[in-house]
Amino acid sequence: MPFTKGTKRAAPRDSRSDSEDEVITKSNKKTKTAKNGASTDGVDKDGNPFWDLSNKRRIGLSQFKNTTFVNIREFYEKDGDMLPGKKGISLTVPQYEALVKAMPAISEKLRAMGHDVEDVEEDGGAPTAVEAPKTATKEKSRAKKSNIEATSDEESD
């Protein structure tokens, strides 16, 4: 029998496991719709704030080496404690800001695909104070780039 890449054989199932899968699927759908509009917030054992997305997924804030990260991560329960799993991503503050700026376009594409997505109103007070220093940083990086281009002309001789 030739091997085909990317295909897997389905494990044999008995009728009992099929009925268990149906029950689990139905209960997952109910929990997703129940938690869809409400996210709870709290503080973990390290004192970092977090917000629940679903039963096992959270968005949290943390610091490492004086850098703040926004963590989107799956958690698992062990001995009554919620511990972070392998699956997740840590975004720096500029990466998080880029995600927030992309949210309206993402929401619009989801609506075009037929999903019902709510618009979230944002507060305009805090982000304006943060954005002013960043424009100065971008101008400095552009100046460095033009300097590199000026010195690269020597190579073309």
Automatic annotation (TrEMBL):
Region (Disordered): 1-49, 117-157
Any single GO BP term: positive regulation of transcription initiation by RNA polymerase II
Record field: compositional bias (Basic residues): 1-10
One of the record's GO cellular component terms: nucleus
Localization, UniProt: Nucleus
GO molecular function: DNA binding; transcription coactivator activity
InterPro entries per the UniProt record, alphabetical: PC4_C, ssDNA-bd_transcriptional_reg, Sub1/Tcp4-like
Domain Transcriptional coactivator p15 (PC4) C-terminal, chain residue ranges per copy: 51-102
Source organism, top-level taxon: Eukaryota
Listed Gene3D superfamilies: Transcriptional Coactivator Pc4, Chain A (2.30.31.10)
Alphabetical keyword list: DNA-binding, Nucleus, Transcription, Transcription regulation
Family under the similarity heading: Belongs to the transcriptional coactivator PC4 family.
Name this polypeptide is given: Transcriptional Coactivator p15
Biological source species: Glomerella acutata (Colletotrichum acutatum)
Lineage: Eukaryota, Fungi, Dikarya, Ascomycota, Pezizomycotina
